[in-house]
Amino acid sequence: MQGALRAVLRGMPAVAALCAERVDWGKRPAKDPYPGICLHLIGDREGFTLRGADGLSRGRVQIDCYAEDYTGAADLAEAVRLGLNGYRQGGFRGVFLESLRDNTERGSNEPDRAARVSMDFLVNWRESNA
After folding, report:
1. Alpha carbons 112 and 99: distance in angstroms, whole number
2. Considering only CA atoms, which of 68, 77, 60, 63 is closest in space to residue 104?
3. Taking the model in full, what pTM does it have?
């Protein structure tokens, strides 16, 4: 799911126009320019029926949109939200926005740190089309 989600985000024209291919899992590369996206798998669980595993994974992915200022981070987050909320293609059986948070990585003496908008998406994924 991780590789497929990264590819989906990189392939969205509105997202690519703002951050090119700067979409990474876990952390942003050092000295990578802004804006950019960092993805985090918050939780994932396999679905079950009375007969056992059903092959459907249900997880939560945090998507952090970074930019040099709040407006840039908010614009990138809006592009992600519009493209990803309700997404259903390939192995994705439904991706839905769960929550959105505005924050910053700036401290009182760190004006050069990035602004960030974070979103949590619920991701329903099936590896096969069975």
Report:
1. 27
2. 68
3. 0.87
